[in-house]
Amino acid sequence: MMKKLYNFMMEQISRLVFGNFESQNMLTMGWDHLIVLDACRFDVFQRVYKEFFTNGQLKSILSPGSSTMEVVKKIFNDDTKALLRDVIFINSNPVIDNTLGTSTLKETFHKYIPVWKKYWDWEIGTVKPENVYKVSLKIFINYPNKRFIIWFL
User: Fold this and answer.
1) Per-residue pLDDT of the chain in tens (153 residues, 90 and over written 9)
2) How many helices and strands (H and E) does the chain possess?
3) CA dist., res. 3 & res. 102, Å (int)
4) Cα end-to-end distance, the chain, whole Å
5) Rounded-to-integer distance, Cα 45 and Cα 51, Å
């Protein structure tokens, strides 16, 4: 009961602040390489992305949640599993494993690579983006025709 009330209140506050909106499930949108910048503000990234990405399209969508756990629970579901069989998922966020379970992730994707297990930096409390990039590049070279989700933290 309290959770439903909380969700209702958050939705109403969001409507007041942002207007009427519909969140989108990024997994159902057309893409070949989906790069998720977890905890990165779009307006900040928008100012610098052209320095790193010369091709492709930058698009802002409304997230279906305000935390990684909430987003993951909403976007990874039975409807999206069939869409992900040919996808390689490179993940730097342990919350995703804790929320969905590593075995579910391995069953869902063509290949699941939890880079956080090897490259977590306890000093800074995250995985350095250059480590995610290096792993992604190595995997891409071996699987150039696969679709990718690369989840930076």
Assistant:
1) 676 777 677 766 766 665 555 667 777 788 888 888 888 778 888 888 887 777 777 777 777 777 888 888 888 888 888 888 999 999 999 999 988 888 888 888 999 999 999 999 999 999 999 999 999 999 999 999 999 999 998
2) 8, 6
3) 26
4) 32
5) 10
CB atoms within 10 A of CB 81: 14
Do the Cβ atoms of 24 and 59 come closer than 8 Å?
A: no
Helix locations, the chain, DSSP H = 2-18, 42-48, 68-75, 78-81, 94-100, 102-108, 116-119, 129-142
Tokens standing for residue 146: 């696969």
Sheet of 147-152: strand order equals: 33-37, 147-152, 87-91, 111-114
Q: Are 28 and 141 in contact (CB under 8 A)?
A: no
